[in-house]
Design a protein that fits this description.
This protein is an alpha/beta fold. It folds into two domains: 8-232, Alpha-Beta Barrel (TIM Barrel), CATH 3.20.20.60; 237-287, no CATH class. It contains 13 helices and ten strands. The strands form two sheets. An eight-stranded parallel β-barrel has the order 1-2-3-4-5-6-7-8, surrounded by five helices. It has a two-stranded antiparallel sheet with strand order 9-10. Helix 3 links the parallel strand 3 and strand 4 (91-94). Helix 2 (44-57) packs parallel to helix 3 and helix 12 packs across helix 13. The longest helix has 18 residues, at 270-287. The chain is globular, with a radius of gyration of 20 Å. The chain starts with 7 loop residues before the first strand and ends with a helix.
């Protein structure tokens, strides 16, 4: 399956028709049309209809389209999922997902999600219970069409009664657990949002922290965050050049069966070849 970059994942309020149209011109890899937190109760039905029409009409190019529904336990969740099944976005983002039972419930509400249907399930990780159940949730990905974890860091801080301090030291264990569970079962994992739109330095630092932890990308709340986010989560020119060197070295006939070789004075193993292949796949997908 071709690699699909998920560096920048931008939330767009489903009730805002202008925002849904503007999203067609924003260079985000993924767009989340939100029916949950950004939509007032009295606007839920209208927002659902507006998002359904936008997805059906298309015009978003190669951007991946995800719809965040209201929790299935709310008065709007079931109707949201019926709309998802009808219009077929790339994925549905399920909030308040705490365990495998919640994942199975979402899959049952989305016919075909675990059996080759187009729409995959993305799971919000926003409660302590979800963090503790990450391994079991990830292990059930094939049966239920799970593709990606999305960190709800604001909710996690609230539920932990923590403080949103610089460096996110209180959240690092949960972030790392999400990355480990995702990698163990071949899923993607997307970091949470950065709330201060005007703090460019802090935003970039948090993107760099997320990438260092192993995140595939970051959720965003403003279009101005897209470009710097894409920059941080893209391979640098030096990384691409080094990846090419590794691939070229292992492709030589004399290295075909070797597990460890020397490349420009550095010892390189086949695990580094796998990493180099991924770097080149990302670089290629970004430029296509």
């Amino acid at each position: 399956m071709p690699f699909r970059p998920r560096r920048s994942v931008l939330y767009m309020p489903g009730a805002n028709a202008r925002a849904l149209e503007k999203a067609k011109m924003i260079a985000a890899d993924c767009l989340i049309f939100d029916l949950e937190d950004s939509v007032a109760p009295e606007e839920k039905v209208e927002a659902r209809n507006r998002v359904a029409a936008a997805v059906a009409a298309g015009g978003y190019g190669k951007r991946e389209l995800i719809i965040r529904i209201n929790a299935l336990s709310t008065p709007w969740g079931a109707a949201d999922m019926e709309m998802i099944a009808r219009v077929g976005p790339d994925a549905v983002l399920v909030p308040k997902l705490n365990d495998v039972t919640d994942l199975a419930q979402a899959a049952r509400a989305l016919p075909g999600s675990g059996g080759g249907g187009k729409t995959r399930i993305w799971a919000m990780v926003e409660t302590p219970l979800a963090v503790f159940n990450l391994r079991a949730i990830a292990a059930a990905h094939e049966a239920h069409g799970l593709q990606c974890f999305v960190l709800g860091t604001n909710d996690l801080v609230k539920e932990m009664r923590g403080q949103p301090a610089a460096g996110r030291f209180a959240l690092v264990p949960a972030l790392s657990m999400a990355v480990l569970a995702a990698r163990a079962y071949g899923l993607d994992v997307i970091d949470g949002v950065y709330n201060d739109i005007n703090d460019e330095v802090g935003f970039r630092a948090e993107c760099e922290q997320g990438r260092a932890l192993g995140m595939d990308g970051k959720t965003l709340i403003h279009p101005d965050q897209v470009a710097p986010c894409n920059g941080v989560f893209s391979p640098t020119a030096d990384e691409v050049a080094w990846a090419r060197n590794i691939i070229a070295a292992f492709s030589l006939p004399e290295n075909a069966k070797k597990g460890v070789i020397r490349v420009k004075g550095r010892m390189v193993e086949r695990l580094h070849l796998a990493m180099a292949d991924r770097v080149m796949a990302i670089a290629k997908a970004i430029t296509e």
